[in-house]
Amino acid sequence: MDLSVEKGRSLALLGRSGQGKSVTIKVALGLMVPDAGSVLLDGVDVTHQSERERRASFAGIGMLFQGGALFDSLTVWENVAFRLINADGVGRAEAKERSIEALALVRLSDVADRFPSELSGGMQKRAGLARAIVGQPSLLFFDEPTTGLDPITAGAINELIRDKVTSLGCTAVSITHDMHSARTIADEVAMLDAGKIVWRGAAADLDHADHPLVRAFVTGNPEGVE
Fold this sequence. Notes:
Layout: E1 10-14, H1 21-28, E2 40-41, E3 44-45, H2 51-57, E4 61-64, H3 76-80, H4 82-86, H5 92-105, H6 121-133, E5 139-143, H7 151-168, E6 171-175, H8 179-185, E7 188-193, E8 196-202, H9 212-219
Parallel strand pairs: 1-6, 1-7, 4-5, 5-6
Antiparallel strand pairs: 2-3, 7-8
């Protein structure tokens, strides 16, 4: 497959389970090394960089994980500041101040000293978003950001993602099965099937796409899809 995202654009990657979405994002993040091909960030091939080179290349990337992926033993602000303290060498006082600022952006400044177990699922997702944006990233990845959330909370997460991506001027790549989410947070949509991009177009064109798999996703009707 060949997939590129222009700077400042938001792309949603759709596809049925087991078709390669998670592998794609893991390869893009450097968590898996591809058998062939390359990954370019700002035109630089990062596929076989050393650990030190990779750390430098990926410093401007933020990630919102599907399950929140918060550390139970750390407070909310410590979770948000984890990378600042442990990778970027920021002092705890400054890291806490920056994490509370990020929490305020996702409307969670009042829970900074709580633990993840004290938060609802939606609040944990918002805390994960704060952690993703605290370092002012230029590239953001979202893995099923609305999975497991009720429609109202999912809508709030979608709006937050769209607003933060816009305000930060980020490039964004999202994996989702949620068609409403794709329409809300993405400029473009790509459909992945068996490791290949079978359709790509504007999010506004989803409802009018003539590809059978895209139509099945939009309508929820599997007729015509093998």
